Predict the 3D structure of the following.
Amino acid sequence: MADSILIQEDLVKLSAKVRPGETHSKKWIVIHETGNTSSTAGALNHAKFIKRLAEENQKYLSWHYTVDDTNIIRHIPDREIAWHAGDGRKSDGGNMSGIGIEICVNKNSNFQIAVKNATKLVASLMKKFNIDLSHIKQHHFFNGKNCPFTIRKYNFWDRFLSMCNAEFQLLR
């Protein structure tokens, strides 16, 4: 639970490329945006997408959570590695040591509410793993990709971190 928001568990099956099942300590929370503005590209359809990736076992692509304005869905257990940061197997990098969160940007979702839900999730993960606010990072930090695009485009990062901190203070 992230402050009255239910985290739905919809884990992908173990697979060599999407979910190898390897565990690693966590020191980062890595924020992404899906980049998919299609009207149906909410958290539920991203859950279907990542399951399809696991079935196909063709790409090293995965993340722990997808968040929209009504859902938070966990796809991979927090302590397992996922392939979301674009930095390979660097021991203290985003893939190995980060928890990847994708925020939906689809047309039929309220992005501001999705962001608010993401801040609640981040706060609960900060508490669970004793992660400092300074260790909440944009995908951009790990490989230079312009992600999370909307948050970066509108210079919303500092506000996002402030919102995460406010949610974290409520959990203390």
